Amino acid sequence: MDKIHDEKLKDSERRKLLTCLAWAGGGLLWTMKGGVLQAKTLDGLAAPADADFSFIQISDTHVGFHQEANPDVLATLQSAIAHVNGLGRAPAFAIHTGDVSHLSKPEQFDAAQQALKGIKTDNWFFTPGEHDTIGDNGAEFFKRFGGGVNGKGWYSFDYRGMHCICLVNVLNFQNGALVALGDEQLEWVEDDLERVSSSTPILVFAHIPLWTVYEPWGWGTSDAPRLYSYLRRFGSVTVLNGHIHQIQQKIEGNMTFYTARGTAYPQPQPGAAPSPGPLKVPAGQLGSYLGIREVTHVNIKGPLAVTDTSLAI
Amino acid sequence: MRQFFSILMLAVAGAASVTGTVQAADKASTVQVSIFNYKFDAETVTVPVGTTVTWTNKDEIPHTVASSDQGFPASPGLDTGDTYSYTFTKPGTYSYYCTLHPFMKGKVVVTPAIPAGD
Ligand SMILES: [Cu+2]
């Protein structure tokens, strides 16, 4: 294991690492289709006992949604919170990767905030989804969940040797184009990373995937390649996103990309339906489509281990 | 909020009558556009000047109607069943999209007033 934690991984070594992660996940099943790795069967997993720390990713709570796909999103959020509090260890921090609310309404933000306080952690980090910035460019969101650099939402922080960058990719929508991070934010990233040594593990999170999962549905970020150019010199980069309400994974060089399930409702796999609208599943199965993610940090120079847990009983 | 927009619309329509499109405004025709399955249906509508276009969101997901070049005011987030209306008082081609799902595109082509009896 130590050997493959070396900073420069060859492809063959990376494959070994994947096998290892799969094993560490206790039944995590990896399948590769069209170059995209998918993880399945993720329930009841315990984090490695020797982990330095772990944190939680929660996403797409969509408080205010009340349609057939999930008539009670607050109940499923509460269930997610119970899952987090039932994990063996208290998370060092929690990140919410956006779409806290469904329609950016103050009462939806307030209800979500109230519920999220139930998670036993002292530190929260938020990035908005496009549902959190409707009509006001995120003013109500940033007021409650932090405005980051210049009130524009992005920021970075360090946690026990790991450098974490929160990005915002929901404020630059243009007709017919994939959303962009924008020049101002990318220049900030470049400056921010200048002082960080290449051996530091990097965590990046944002709402919309920072790799193109499926362009016809807008599941990607147009100027992400420029972001990669700043991240390439680091040994280990983990990128976490939400938005598509399902797990998708991809490895590109030193960067590993993961999208998370939401706690509100599932969405179809890329291109598997006429539109990305909510997927209606039998009520008894909904829990297995929703979930939370625990990320553990085992070795200071190693990659992060990601464990997805569904809300199925 | 919707009430506010209706008032705004009336104001715009009022201003238009002063500039000489009274005839078309009087006809007060309305064209419906559905938003369904992440599409504007119809994607292109061609209407005479003075027509009110009303969009209705029939999806379970919110959408918006936003002009690509500030040709008309953007809608608020439209929840399921919500509508948004705008009266087009000047001929031209108005491209618009959904700011939540920018791959959703539509167009309103506003033609000059139709001669009487057409
Ligand atoms: Cu939309």
Note the main attributes of this structure.
heterodimer; A: alpha/beta; six-stranded mixed beta sheet; 13 strands; 22% helix; disordered N terminus; B: 118 residues; alpha/beta; 2 helices; 35% strand; binds copper (II) ion
3D structure, described in words:
Chain A is α/β, with parallel strands linked by helices and 313 residues long. Chain A is 22% helix and 21% strand. Chain A is built from seven helices and 13 strands. Chain B has 118 residues and is an alpha/beta fold. Helices cover 19% and strands 35% of the residues of chain B. A four-stranded mixed sheet of chain B has the order 2-1-4-6. Chain B has a four-stranded mixed sheet with strand order 3-8-7-5, with no helix packed on it. In chain B, strand 7 and strand 8 form a beta hairpin. The longest helix of chain B is centred in the first third of the chain and has 17 residues. The radius of gyration of chain B is 14 Å and the shape is globular. The N terminus of chain B is likely disordered. The structure holds copper (II) ion. The site of copper (II) ion has 5 residues of chain B, from loops.
Broad shape of chain A: globular
- Report on the biggest sheet of chain A: 6 strands, mixed
Instruction: Give the beta-strand count of chain B.
Output: 8
| Rg measurement of chain B, Å | 14 Å
Cofactors and ligands? copper (II) ion
Query: Low-confidence parts of chain B lasting 5 or more residues at pLDDT below 50?
Result: 1-26
Count the E strands of chain A: 13
Q: Structural class, judged by helices and strands of chain B? A: alpha/beta
Topology, please?
The complex is a heterodimer of chains A (313) and B (118).
Chain A: H1 11-24, E1 29-33, E2 36-40, E3 53-58, H2 73-86, E4 93-96, H3 106-116, E5 124-126, H4 139-145, E6 155-159, E7 162-166, H5 183-194, E8 202-205, H6 224-231, E9 237-241, E10 248-252, E11 255-259, H7 286-289, E12 291-297, E13 305-310
Parallel strand pairs in A: 3-4, 4-5, 7-8, 8-9, 9-11
Antiparallel strand pairs in A: 1-2, 3-12, 6-7, 10-11, 12-13
Helix pairs in contact in A: 2-3, 5-6
Chain B: H1 2-18, H2 22-27, E1 30-36, E2 39-41, E3 44-48, E4 52-57, E5 66-67, E6 83-87, E7 92-97, E8 105-111
Parallel strand pairs in B: 1-4, 3-8
Antiparallel strand pairs in B: 1-2, 4-6, 5-7, 7-8
Copper (II) ion (CU) binds at residues 63, 98, 100-101, 104 of chain B.
